[in-house]
């Protein structure tokens, strides 16, 4: 999100910009740590492509993907933050070939986030006033705005905390390249019939919260 980019870019020292495939990458440092900042764009293809570029072109040794999501887990509210323990696709179906629901051929059903990165984010969260949960984040090329659709997702992934449009694609690319990853999602809506309206109202704040968490971790 542009709001996240603005917050994080303002903290980069020795800023250098470059472009690949129409995507702008910002290189610099925060607290003497090398950082490459990029807005992938919306959807799984954009997210996977951008993650691969980060690793291949910029030598990224860890990936933190942040953004907004719709909360579908019990007790989640707008403004809450979720850290991934795992990520999965909710819009994939290769079960005709004996794969699990959500599992792409030759891929795991669940992509496991790096425990060390998640622990660092969890520690950073202790100095904020944000409500944080850890768990499964599910991804699809759909904006979820229906209780019926949430129920379909929960039938496959009853433990899912939130749904969004990029995380599992980032996770898959990181998995392929054996690079550790973690995903941060701030809740901009709760996936119901009012999701479009609440998304527009809270998306900027969600972006700020995700960016704040990353900055706190990098400067701890």
From TrEMBL:
One Gene Ontology term, aspect cellular component: cytosol
Listed EC numbers: 3.2.2.9
Species of origin: Liquorilactobacillus capillatus DSM 19910
Protein name: adenosylhomocysteine nucleosidase
Reactions catalysed according to its record: 5'-deoxyadenosine + H2O = 5-deoxy-D-ribose + adenine
The protein's annotated pathway: Amino-acid biosynthesis; L-methionine biosynthesis via salvage pathway; S-methyl-5-thio-alpha-D-ribose 1-phosphate from S-methyl-5'-thioadenosine (hydrolase route): step 1/2
Domain Nucleoside phosphorylase: 1-218
UniProt entry keywords in alphabetical sequence: Amino-acid biosynthesis, Hydrolase, Methionine biosynthesis
Single GO MF annotation: methylthioadenosine nucleosidase activity
Cross-referenced PANTHER family: 5'-METHYLTHIOADENOSINE/S-ADENOSYLHOMOCYSTEINE NUCLEOSIDASE, 5'-METHYLTHIOADENOSINE_S-ADENOSYLHOMOCYSTEINE NUCLEOSIDASE
Zinc keyword on record: no
One Pfam entry name: PNP_UDP_1
GO terms classed as biological process: L-methionine salvage from methylthioadenosine; L-methionine salvage from S-adenosylmethionine; nucleoside catabolic process
């Amino acid at each position: 999100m542009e709001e996240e980019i603005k917050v994080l870019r303002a903290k980069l020292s020795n800023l250098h910009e470059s472009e690949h495939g129409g995507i702008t990458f910002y290189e610099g440092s925060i607290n003497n740590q090398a950082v490459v900042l990029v807005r992938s764009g919306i959807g799984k293809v954009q997210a996977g492509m951008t993650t691969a570029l980060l690793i291949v072109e910029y030598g990224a040794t860890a990936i933190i993907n942040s953004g907004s999501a719709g909360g579908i887990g019990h007790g989640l509210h707008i403004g809450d933050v979720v850290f991934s323990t795992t990520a999965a696709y909710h819009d994939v179906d290769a079960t005709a070939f004996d794969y699990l629901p959500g599992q792409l051929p030759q891929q795991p059903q669940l992509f496991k986030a790096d425990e060390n990165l998640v622990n660092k984010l969890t520690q950073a969260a202790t100095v904020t006033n944000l409500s944080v949960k850890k768990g499964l984040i599910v991804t699809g090329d759909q904006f979820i705005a229906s209780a019926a659709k949430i129920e379909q997702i929960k039938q496959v992934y009853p433990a899912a905390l939130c749904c969004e449009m990029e995380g599992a694609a980032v996770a898959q690319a990181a998995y392929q390249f054996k690079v550790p990853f973690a995903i941060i999602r701030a809740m901009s809506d709760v996936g119901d019939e009012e999701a479009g309206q609440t998304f527009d109202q809270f998306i900027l704040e969600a972006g700020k919260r995700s960016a704040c968490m990353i900055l706190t971790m990098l400067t701890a």
